[in-house]
Structures are given as structure tokens and as C-alpha cells.
């Protein structure tokens, strides 16, 4: 029996050192309580039974009070295959979103010609997409905070793919409006992928790596232009819609490799699940998470409370972010739509005719649009450098000012090659604006309201995107100068909002909840 007891002690010590998730202990029990009784042992003899304990239930004594947070665990993971996997999956979401947005610019001239649409009808095709996005953005955000990012993203990808595919069979203009608005309703949930990526990046690398997500967006827009240049002249717009819907179904397949957010799991009181996710990530990166007990505050009974966005600490930030998201989307999508319109006007002038409804984009126009998209790649290194040198707020102010200035310059008569250069700069600065607001919003809000904060802010972005077609496609048709001054003026106002944001998120640890933040401040 002494040998058995000694072996049990050794097993306990080795097991605790080797695998923190399955600590065990021994206890003495009477043989009569054991299932496997032996005739050689009488009822007075005591045996030893090893009893397994679940990790996290009673580990304080084992680790002598050591604790660690989710952020500390994520920082200990470093950068490796785990983050690369997240970048690929989340990048697919971003690229698919970009394709659907760029689709609006290349599809509008074709439908205008085929169905003899008025300018305001063409603008409505874009507007209804953003109406759908504006309605569902807060809903998707709240769902992400309540039910998890991963579950919500499954629903989002299926929604976009299904209604995108149905749009292919639209028999009339009215059906185009209905189905594209439903596609927009799904696109509003795409920022969930950005939130989950943000929550798995180490603090010191977060800004640089989030900047790289802009590559996925630029690749998505470029790919859509290339597909449109090939498909539209030969197969028509229905095939373009069909091809554009395919990435959403591909995402559904790869979603099984996307882990749930550990921050969400901890905030929801599901600590053991969070530990399993973090340990799996550590194995993938050949790293280890800190020893000790994962610190978990009491489970949050109500995730995604709108009132938290207007708590004293975040009220001003929330209101200013809504302005920034509105102007950012208004300017970016305005430039996307205005590109096609400006090129159509340019073609009409070169041909000595009027700007009729059937001035379709030509091969050179697609090349110009692709070149202008390069501006979105150029903004990446600039933002990456400025974020770490002068901070998020001032970088955003510079981006917004640059976008406003070059937008205003578009009213000057110039050769097409110079016009292409100005369009490239506007696209670059406007893409940098989106890069800034996404990163700042994801960093400034606590985990409990992060996707709700992004969702409500992006809802205001959709409002801006709803209105911009009537400037970029309707007002611009009447007066180019009036249109660009609208964009320029709003850009300068937004630059002031960015400069005066109350919280700088440079090197800031992601907060877990509004309550904890307020307690720390007090």
C-alpha cells in the first residue's frame, strides 16, 4: 500500500507540472466503496483512488495565487500560424465585402443602358444596399456580443451568398432593388470578422497587422473590376452577379477553422471554453500561455448594452465616431461611384457627344479604375508608420484632410493621366480613413460592447453611403464643382473630429468591460 500511495503522489506531481488542464489529487477511501474489490484486501484496509478535477474549479492552491488575463495569454502567443489562419479567413470576408461594393460601380452603367434608367434610379440601386446595411448593422453587432462572433459570421456569409445568388435572376428593376437591399442587410455583419481578428492580435503588433487587412479590401475591389472587364462584354451582368456571390459560399466552408473569440467567451462567463481555445492557439504557434488561473470577472448577464456606449467615459467618443464613420463612407463610396461617372463624362466629351444613358465603360476605363485602386495599397505603409509615431487620432485627421483636399482638386480640367493620379490619391486617402476608423473603433470599445460599437458606428457609415449616390451620380451630373465641394467640406469637418477624439488607443490594452474601465479611471 505504501508503494501505491507513493506512485499516486508522483503521478499527481508530474501531471500537474505537465498539463495544467488536468490536475489530479488522491484521497483515501474504504475498499468497500471501490468498484473493483479484491479478496486479498479486507474491509479495514484502505486503498487509494485518483480523482480527476476539472481545470479552473479549484486551482488556486496549485498555482499559489497566480493569475493571467486574456490579453496576457494572447500576448504570450506571439505571431505565428494561428494569426495567419485568422488573416486568411477574415481577409476572405473583407474581400467578399469589397467585391459587392465595387459591383455597384461597374453594374450601374450597364443597367442604366439596358433598362433606360434615370439618374436617380441608378443612384437608388446603391442606396438600397446601404439602407439594408443601416437597418441590420446594429442587429448583427448585438448578436455578435450576445451569441458570439463565429456563430454570427456563419449567418452573415449564408445570407450574403443566398440573396446575392438570387439577384442573378432578377426579372426587373424593382426586384434588383429588393434583392440588393437584402444583400446589404447581410454585408452589415462583415465587421464581425474584423472584431474577432482584433481580439486575437498581440497589443504591440495590433495596429500594424490590422493595417494589412486593407490589402484584402483592395484585392477584392481589384478582382471585381478585372472580372467585370472580362465578364460584362461577353457574358453580361447576370453572370457577373453570379460570380460575385461565390466567395460567400466559400467562406461558409472555411468557417469551421475559425475559433470563437476568447475575449467573448470570458466576457460571457465561459472561461473553460476560453482556456481550451487559447491552449489550442498556443499549440498552433508552438507557444505556451501563462501559468495560473485565467482571471474571469463575474459573467456578464447582458452583453451589448446600448447604454454602455453612452456612459460618461464613452459618450463623446461614440458621437464623434458616428460622424467619422458617416463621412468616411460618404467619401469612400462617393469616390468609387464618381470614378465611373467621371470617366463616362470624359468619354462623352472625347466623342463630341452628350452624356447619354448608354456611355458604357471601355477597356481603358477599367484600367484607370484598377490603377486608382492601387492608391488603397499605398495608404498601408503610410498609416502603419504614422499610427505608431503620432497615434491614431492625428493619423486619422491627416487622412481625412488629404482626402478632402484632393477631392476638391477633381473639379479642375486636366488630362486623363493626371486625373487618374488624383483619383488614385483620393482612393488612397479615403481607404486610409476606413482603415483608421475600423482600427480605432475596435480598439477603443471594451469587449462587452465592441461589436455593438462597431455595428452602430457602421450603421452611420451606411447612412453616409445611402446619401452619397445622389451626390456622386446625380449632383455630379449637374455640377462637378458642387459635388466635390460637398465631399471636401465634410472631410475637413471630420478631420477636426478625429483630432479631438478624447481617447488615444496607441499602445492601449483592449478593455474588457465598461464597468471595469470606469472603476480603473476612478
TrEMBL record:
Location in the cell: Membrane
Record domain Major facilitator superfamily (MFS) profile: where: 86-506
Membrane-spanning intervals of the chain: 86-108, 120-140, 152-169, 209-231, 237-258, 321-346, 366-389, 482-501
GO molecular function: transmembrane transporter activity
SUPFAM superfamilies: MFS general substrate transporter (SSF103473)
One GO cellular component term noted in the UniProt record for this chain: membrane
Principal subcellular localization: membrane
Membrane is among the record's keywords: yes
Keywords assigned by UniProt, alphabetized: Membrane, Transmembrane, Transmembrane helix, Transport
Membrane topology: Multi-pass membrane protein
Family recorded in the similarity comment: Belongs to the major facilitator superfamily.
Protein name in the entry: Transporter SVOPL
Species this chain originates from: Mizuhopecten yessoensis (Japanese scallop)
